[in-house]
Specification:
Helices cover about 60% and strands about 10% of the residues. By secondary structure, the protein is an alpha+beta fold. Strands 1-2-3-5-4 form a five-stranded mixed beta sheet, covered by helices on one side. Helix 2 packs antiparallel against helix 3, helix 4 runs antiparallel to helix 5 and helix 7 packs across helix 11. The longest helix has about 80 residues. It starts with 14 loop residues before the first helix and ends with a strand. Pfam families: DUF7134 (PF23539), HisKA_3 (PF07730). Keywords: ATP-binding, Kinase, Membrane, Nucleotide-binding, Phosphoprotein, Transferase, Transmembrane, Transmembrane helix, Two-component regulatory system. It comes from Streptomyces lienomycini. It is an enzyme of class 2 (transferase).
């Protein structure tokens, strides 16, 4: 998962964070490639070490007990320590340990020692910082005892050095905590994204299971009807030709519809997850009763448009349209009580069936009603299985609309 907040600003992140947020091919040795920010930080650390080293070099001639050869060794050691700052990312603890050992021998290496301690505080847990920082403070005691600071008491020198060490450690730990916070927020975003996907998949699976149960019951209904008419022919051999023809037509139509339902069930079961709702449901012909029931419940529902031939709408398409209208009216009653809801159904054979349910924006504050949006996910899945599409979202006026288009061949 990439982080939208930092998309296009990778240069502003540390290399370790970029490697974690935007994983890619590993470099030789497993080290992440430095970003522009890393180069700026590394150069700044090197510059700080050099400046502190130069300031310390100006004070070497004030040490009466320091011979010229020792002064030259001090400065050469400081120069090497400043150059070693460029290795701080690869070996932070090792470089800090070396700097602790070098500090008593070179005053000009003090800046590099502070930079190495800061690096340990940024890249390693606190136990490493405590050991390296504690060893550095003990070495400082030895250093100021061997080479007293000109014009400054021993205790004052030790206190200033301790305060500087604590400040560097605190700054490094603050940078480390900000980096860890960024990574933890990334992990939380990943988990939230995964949980949302799992919830959507679960809702889709439950919707398919419900639809499969509904198809099963409808198919059983068809087969029962077929069996009844076939039995009537068996026990009424003296029936008239008209009655036999009518019963045969009913058997043929029921067999055809049962075959269609069976194909739908197989299509559902062949999908990645099962699908569908549970008992024989009303078809498009029951839409008027649904609107009347909603009005009796206190809703202001307006039914506009009519399909060209509602009786000719296939049963599966009619069930889907009915369920979409039912769920949309339920949502309007929960989330926009008291508003006018317009239900529109249009279409003809060959053109498809268009259904829309639109409500006006609610007046005033609406009480919060718990809901997760799983109903709309189920409707989308239902429309998709019927070979159609479903869209939903707010209108320009501030209301909400559900639009579905279903095939009608």
């Amino acid at each position: 998962m990439t982080s939208p907040a930092y998309a296009g600003r990778r240069w502003a992140l540390p290399a370790a964070v970029v490697e974690d947020l935007y994983p890619g091919p590993a470099r030789p040795g497993g080290r992440p490639r430095r970003t522009a920010r890393d180069w700026i930080v590394d150069f700044t650390c090197f510059l700080v070490a050099v400046v502190i080293g130069l300031l310390a070099a100006d004070t070497l001639d004030q040490e009466a007990d320091l011979s010229p050869p020792l002064a030259v060794v001090d400065q050469l050691t400081g120069a090497l320590a400043c150059a070693a700052v460029w290795l701080r990312r690869r070996w932070p603890v090792g470089l800090a340990v070396v700097m602790v050992a070098v500090t008593p021998l070179s005053a000009t290496a003090g800046g590099a020692a502070l930079v190495s301690l800061f690096t340990v505080a940024v890249h390693r847990p606190f136990r490493y910082v405590a050991w390296v920082g504690g060893a550095g403070l003990l070495v400082q005691l030895l250093y100021y005892w061997m080479r007293p600071e000109p014009g400054l008491p021993f205790l004052a020198s030790v206190v200033i050095s301790a305060l500087l060490t604590v400040a560097v450690v605190g700054w490094g730990m603050l940078a480390r905590s900000k980096r860890l916070l960024l990574l933890s927020l990334r992990d939380r975003a990943r988990r939230a994204e995964t949980e949302a996907r799992l919830r959507a998949e679960q809702a889709q699976r439950l919707a398919r299971e419900a639809i499969a149960r509904e198809m099963h019951d409808v198919l059983a209904h068809r087969l029962t009807l077929l069996s009844v008419h076939a039995g009537a022919l068996e026990f009424r051999p003296d029936a008239s030709r008209e009655e036999i023809a009518r019963a045969a037509g009913v058997i043929r139509e029921s067999a055809h519809e049962a075959l269609q339902d069976l194909r739908e069930i197989i299509g559902v079961l062949r999908a990645a997850e099962p699908d569908d709702a549970g008992r024989p449901q009303p078809t498009l012909a029951g839409l008027d009763a649904l609107v009347a029931e909603s009005r009796e419940a206190g809703m202001n529902v307006v039914l506009t448009g009519r399909a060209a031939d509602p009786a000719a709408v296939p049963a599966s398409v009619g069930r889907t349209a009915y369920r979409i209208a039912q769920e949309a009216l339920t949502n309007a009653r929960k989330h926009a009580p008291g508003t006018e809801v317009t239900v529109s159904v249009t279409g003809a054979p060959g053109d498809g069936l268009a259904l829309s349910v639109r409500n006006a924006p609610p007046a005033g504050e609406v009480p919060h009603v718990p809901g997760s949006g799983q109903g709309l996910i189920g409707l989308t899945e239902r429309a998709s299985l019927a070979g159609g599409t479903l869209e939903h979202g707010p209108t320009a006026a501030g209301g909400f609309e559900v639009r579905a288009r279903l095939p009608w061949s």
